[in-house]
Automatic annotation (TrEMBL), chain A:
Gene name per UniProt: mnhE1
Keywords: Cell membrane, Membrane, Transmembrane, Transmembrane helix
Ranges that cross the membrane: 34-53, 65-89
Domain of life (superkingdom): Bacteria
Protein name per Swiss-Prot or TrEMBL: Multisubunit potassium/proton antiporter PhaE subunit
Family assignment from sequence similarity: Belongs to the CPA3 antiporters (TC 2.A.63) subunit E family.
Pfam family, one: MNHE
Native source species: Limimaricola soesokkakensis
Automatic annotation (TrEMBL), chain B:
InterPro entries: PhaG_MnhG_YufB (IPR005133)
Protein name: Multisubunit potassium/proton antiporter PhaG subunit
Organism: Limimaricola soesokkakensis
TM spans (from-to): 6-25, 70-91
Disordered: region residues: 99-119
Keywords: Membrane, Transmembrane, Transmembrane helix
Any coiled-coil regions, as ranges: none
A GO molecular-function annotation: sodium:proton antiporter activity
Length: 167, 119
C-alpha cells in the first residue's frame, strides 16, 4: 500500500531530485523556503507529466555514468580542436562528408537518446535519424574517408559503456 | 594586486579568448562549408567548447570577485540538453527536402528511416 502511494506521488524520484536541484540553482540560494518550493515543484511536475514518461529508467551503475560524462567532456574538447583544424585548413573539395549507419545493440529509449546526444555534441558527427524500428542510427560525419572506422569507434567507445550503465 | 589575483585574471582572459576563437571558427565554418549537412557541423562546435569556456571564465571571475554564482552550470546543462535536439530537427528538415533525391544508406534490417516511414 505505502509502496503504491510513493509510486503515485513520486513516479520519477530522480527527476524530482533533479527539479529541486535546478530550482535551488535558479534561485541561487539554499534557504528552507527555496528547498520547500523546489520540493513542491518536484512533486507536481512529474505527476503532471507522468503520461508522457510511463517507464522509469534504471541506472544500473551511477558511478559509471559520472565517468562516462567526464570522458564525453574530454572527447568534446579534443574533437573541437580537430574539427576547427578541418574547417580552417582543409579545402571543401578535399573533405569526405559521409553518412554512417550504426546498428544499435542498446534498446532502452533513454540510452539511445543519450547516445544520439553524445554523437551530436562531439563535433564532426551529427546524429540525423533513427531507423523506423529503432534498431539503427543514421549519423552524418563531416570528414570521414572511412565510415566503418567511425562506426566502430562510436560502438566501442560510447555504446558499450551506455549498455553497461542502462542495461 | 596580489600574485594570485593576477594569475586568475590571466586565466579568465585566456578562457575568454579561447571561447571567442571557437565561436568565430564556428561562424566561419557556417560560411565556408558548402553543403547543408556539412554546415550543421559548424554551430555544434560554437555551442560546446566556445560557450563552455566563456561560461567557465564567467564562473571563475565570479568566484574570484566574491559573489559566487552557479548559474553558469545551469546554462551549460540546458545548452547540452537542447543543442542536439535542434541539430536533429535541422537534419530532419534536410532529409525531408532531399526525399527521393540522393540515396541514403539503408538501415541494416530491411526497414526505412523513421523520417521516411509511412504512418
Amino acid at each position: 500500500m505505502s509502496m503504491r502511494l510513493t509510486r503515485k506521488l513520486l513516479p520519477h524520484p530522480l527527476l524530482s531530485a533533479l527539479l529541486v536541484l535546478v530550482w535551488c540553482l535558479l534561485i541561487n540560494d539554499l534557504s528552507l523556503g527555496t528547498v520547500v518550493f523546489g520540493a513542491l515543484l518536484g512533486i507536481v511536475i512529474p505527476m503532471a507529466t507522468r503520461a508522457f514518461w510511463p517507464d522509469r529508467p534504471k541506472i544500473g551503475r551511477p558511478a559509471r555514468l559520472v565517468s562516462y560524462l567526464l570522458m564525453v567532456i574530454w572527447d568534446i574538447m579534443v574533437a573541437n580542436v580537430q574539427v576547427a583544424m578541418i574547417v580552417l585548413f582543409k579545402r571543401n573539395e578535399d573533405m569526405a562528408p559521409n553518412w554512417v549507419v550504426i546498428p544499435l545493440e542498446i534498446r532502452t529509449p533513454e540510452a539511445i537518446a543519450m547516445l544520439a546526444g553524445t554523437i551530436t555534441l562531439t563535433p564532426g558527427t551529427v546524429s540525423a535519424d533513427l531507423s523506423a524500428d529503432g534498431h539503427a542510427l543514421l549519423v552524418h560525419a563531416l570528414d570521414a574517408p572511412d565510415p566503418e572506422a567511425v562506426r566502430d569507434d562510436i560502438k566501442t567507445r560510447y555504446e558499450r559503456r551506455l549498455k553497461e550503465i542502462f542495461e | 594586486m596580489t600574485g594570485g589575483m593576477m594569475l586568475l585574471e590571466i586565466l579568465v582572459a585566456a578562457l575568454l579568448i579561447i571561447g571567442a576563437a571557437f565561436t568565430l571558427i564556428g561562424s566561419y565554418g557556417l560560411l565556408k562549408l558548402d553543403q547543408p549537412m556539412k554546415r550543421l557541423h559548424a554551430p555544434t562546435k560554437a555551442s560546446t567548447l566556445g560557450v563552455g569556456s566563456l561560461l567557465l571564465a564567467s564562473m571563475i571571475h565570479a568566484f574570484a570577485s566574491g559573489d559566487a554564482s552557479l548559474h553558469e552550470l545551469l546554462v551549460m546543462a540546458f545548452l547540452f540538453v537542447t543543442a542536439p535536439i535542434s541539430g536533429n530537427f535541422i537534419a530532419k528538415v534536410h532529409l525531408h527536402r532531399q526525399r527521393g533525391g540522393k540515396e541514403l544508406p539503408p538501415p541494416p534490417e530491411e526497414k526505412t528511416w523513421a523520417t521516411y516511414a509511412e504512418q
